[in-house]
Specification:
Layout: H1 2-18, H2 25-35, H3 37-46, H4 54-59, H5 62-72, H6 74-77, H7 98-107, H8 120-130
């Protein structure tokens, strides 16, 4: 009986860990949005030229984007973009533009569900940053 309870408890811990735990995301997203409001306006113009690569680097607040990524995406795609439950994003910019990535974040694709907890501003910030990963 103890083995069964231990196995169930361990399984529950693994499931909760894989889901990222939740709860903190909403509070931290607001802070990230306040810090990057000006950067997201610039990034909105960057989306049209997202394939230029180097031009996108100067307009993306990489620190804020990485923070938003860690809060919203790392539990599935890995803290180093190397993948996990989700695919690697280390070279996602060579396959998708920033606009495409925003669409994937907001609408989902394949087995990835829509990420409704991610604000539009954070989605644009993360997408602009990921689009530079080529």
């Amino acid at each position: 009986m103890k083995k069964l309870l231990s196995a169930l408890f361990l399984g529950l811990i693994l499931v909760l860990a894989a889901c990222g735990g939740g709860g903190d995301e909403g509070a931290n997203d607001d802070n990230a949005n306040e810090q990057t409001e000006e950067g997201t306006n610039e990034e909105g113009t960057d989306e049209g030229g997202g394939e230029s690569g180097e031009g996108g680097d100067s307009n993306v607040d990489a620190e804020a984007a990485e923070q938003a990524y860690q809060q919203n995406c790392a539990s599935c795609h890995g803290g180093d973009l190397g993948g996990g439950m989700g695919p690697s994003l280390q070279q996602v910019g060579s396959k998708y533009s920033a606009e495409d990535i925003v669409g994937i974040i907001k609408n989902g694709k394949g087995s990835m569900p829509a990420q409704e907890q991610v604000s539009d501003e954070d989605a644009q910030l993360i997408a602009g940053w990921l689009a530079t990963k080529k």
